[in-house]
Amino acid sequence: MNAQAWLNLISDFLFPGNCPICEGPPYRRMDSYMCLECMDELPWITGGGCKLCGIPMSGMEFGGLTCQSCREEVRSFRAGRSLFLLDRNGRKLVHEIKYHGVRCVLKDLPHWLERCGGIPEYLEDALLIPVPLHGKRLKSRGFNQSLWIARALNDEIAGTEVLEILMRERNTPSQTKLDRKSRKANVKNAFALKPRTCLDTKKPMVLVDDVFTTGATLDSCAQVLSGMGCEDVRVLVLGHG
Ligand SMILES: [Zn+2]
Ligand SMILES: [Zn+2]
Predict the structure, then answer these.
(1) What spacing in Å lies between the alpha carbon of 232 and ligand 2's midpoint?
(2) Ligand 2 centroid vs 71 CA: distance in angstroms?
(3) From ligand 2's centre to the CA of 124, what distance in Å?
(4) CA-CA distance, 181 to 212, in Å (whole number)?
(5) How far is the CA of 36 from the centre of ligand 1 (A)?
(6) Residue 7: other Cβ atoms inside 10 A
(7) Are 153 and 106 in contact (CB under 8 A)?
(8) Which of 2, 43, 143, 239 has its Cα between 20 and 30 A from that of 135?
């Protein structure tokens, strides 16, 4: 961890923070960081959406089908769930974790899981595989937020296991300013299995990341796993959008 990450960890401990979204007082009665108002307002995804990315669907579309953007892409994973939509508040929450290293927010995960529904069943007996950062990025950020999320899920859901088996071979530029096509090219063949990794290819493998935007990064990771013969590759992210 770098100095900033250590500082954040220490200040989390000394000053158990305010709500990560509105910065108001935390919701102590439920022992959560997020205040009740922000928790209620966050657009939680309660299931029944696109089977590949989890986004809620309306009209003629219903559970078991895929959204338009997933239909237009080749997906190397067979299922996906997202916990909430990335509206302004959703973005702020992810931003606090990813760029400010506010790990304590993930202690609220049990409350999030209650609001989403079906996640423990979705992750049952799964190997949780965090999307890796390149060594250089890891050094500058000090932590991998996807590993934090995977560990928080593992703490809550019995039978899961966190496996850091993927590595990022190329230090690709950030995806945030790229369009759909460039994102795909940017992460193509960027990931590989760590050397000497043994895999039980029959187990469900769930790739864990902070956000699902076009799905290009997750797909690139999934290609590595399905290329190794893994039969059941899925994804789970915090925010979709
Ligand atoms: Zn709040
Ligand atoms: Zn979708």
Answers:
(1) 17
(2) 7
(3) 22
(4) 15
(5) 7
(6) 13
(7) no
(8) 239
Give all strands (DSSP E) within 79-216, no chain letters: 79-85, 127-130, 161-162, 166-168, 191-193, 205-212
Determine contact, residues 69/214, Cβ cutoff 8 Å: yes
- Average pLDDT (51-60) is 83
Phi, psi of 192 (to 5 degrees): -150, 165
pLDDT in tens, 66-95: 998 999 988 999 999 999 999 999 999 999
pLDDT of residue 11: 61
CA 72 to chain centre: 22
- Confidence grade of residue 206 (pLDDT, cut at 50, 70, 90): very high
199, HSE (Cβ side, Cα atoms, 13 Å): 27
Q: Which pTM was predicted? A: 0.89
State the Cα–Cα distance between residues 200 and 162, nearest whole angstrom.
14
Whose tokens are 């108002």? That residue is: 37
- Rounded CA separation 140/7 (Å): 14
- Measured CA to CA, the distance from residue 149 to residue 128 in angstroms comes to 10
Which residue type does 197 have? T
